[in-house]
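Good morning C.,

I know you're traveling, so I'll keep this short. The sequence:
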Amino acid sequence: MQAIGFNGVEFIEFEKETAPPKGRDLIVEIQAISINPIDTKVKQTVTKDSPLKILGYDAAGVVISVGDQTSLFKVGDEVFYAGDMTRDGSNTTHQLVDERLVGRKPSSLSYGQAAALPLTSITAWESLFDRLKITKTDHDKTLLLIGAAGGVGSMAIQLAKQVVGMKAVATASRAESTD
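The tokens, ready to paste straight into the viewer:
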């Protein structure tokens, strides 16, 4: 596979062998990735003495190979996911990823649109439903989101409205972020 790695000083293009999938792993041929704040945070931990680090966690692509215990996906499935920080990232042509981290790419979305969703959507979902304990019985309430112009905030607005039926009121610090 072709990959882009960071060595603490610069990004380097290189070739790397793709390990065969084992257990519940899939090999996904990457069609699109998105850059997330986690990429910059992980990049800051890489020093010139560190091994080459492949960044990238949000991706969308096509399953091209499956492990022997895979039950959720098959070759040819279009998928999207937020990867595992303990493994190589998605800045590659092919990525090994556990099927339990993967979802089916909605057919209504392009690969680029799907790749932009995973981590922001997971964070918004966990904030609303796991931390704030919002349920469908809250449909008659109003949710105030401070600083909601970013990825997580915009997803939280959509989830509150579409999943719960809540009214969402959001703030933004810049005029160009208010639409």
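Safe travels,
E.
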